[in-house]
């Protein structure tokens, strides 16, 4: 399992549980440009900055792990570790709040615990509570007007990033050994980056989302945070499926070098660093440079109609912007499908930025929805082909 660490936007985008990864700003993370612009704003106030738990938790409780097997059996792999869960995972007997009091008020306690949480408990970890998140998993900053905004331990005046903000802060503040969250449009990657910890976003569909409230089923994934890469690996050994040994031995890095034009770091500065880093890694090939924008333009024909026609627009950049637009439109459509009835019935009170996103989702028509799904299917096939991963 590969990880990387940084304290800038676009920290980690692990595309598969296999040993291949795309380095750079991931294709589906083009929306990170929007995130970066939004999160440059600094908070003027910080609720909960003096709290012992850094404002990371909505609710504290203890779920004991499964009993240890008697000797001479080996101890459970997560024995002795504590973890927290984002307020989007079901825990039996507790109401899953989705980051919003009106949601919590109008729903019943969960009848069972989410599959991912159960697996962690069965392997020796102890759950110590639920963490703050952006309402409905629709935010990027980690702020929550109802429960307060978790304080980033290193720089408490800065936003923690969202939407899995409380989970990231609980780990960064050393309150728990690891925490789980979800990633739809960067909800694990962004707070991991902002809080300066390790974060892992699993491939879509690899980890069960049974017992997890859905924002958008085409993009929702389970992820987790840790300060120590060895703990990140231990959690991954429980949540991720075991791969055949011959697949695990393959090591190939693909560098989406054109994506660095969206950041302040040029590929000319980053590629030599990566080359030096992998020289000491056994079995790795030299990085392969790919213009991912042009690759997508050539392999996702349904995206052509969404690309800008401006002669001043670079072909690859136009493609990535179009992909981002389709992604956001599809996310909005699925959010509307999942929650329109409840939102129109309850009319929940939300922060202004969240309300704007809810309004955009609920009130936008989607004449191109079939094409959006076609783009998604073609893109997945193209990336599987690029990474030489069998479908």
UniProtKB/TrEMBL annotation:
<feature type="transmembrane region" description="Helical">
    <location>
        <begin position="20"/>
        <end position="37"/>
    </location>
</feature>
<keyword id="KW-0812">Transmembrane</keyword>
<keyword id="KW-0472">Membrane</keyword>
<feature type="domain" description="Amidase">
    <location>
        <begin position="75"/>
        <end position="228"/>
    </location>
</feature>
<dbReference type="Pfam" id="PF01425">
    <property type="entry name" value="Amidase"/>
</dbReference>
<dbReference type="InterPro" id="IPR036928">
    <property type="entry name" value="AS_sf"/>
</dbReference>
<protein>
    <recommendedName>
        <fullName>Amidase domain-containing protein</fullName>
    </recommendedName>
</protein>
<dbReference type="InterPro" id="IPR023631">
    <property type="entry name" value="Amidase_dom"/>
</dbReference>
<keyword id="KW-1133">Transmembrane helix</keyword>
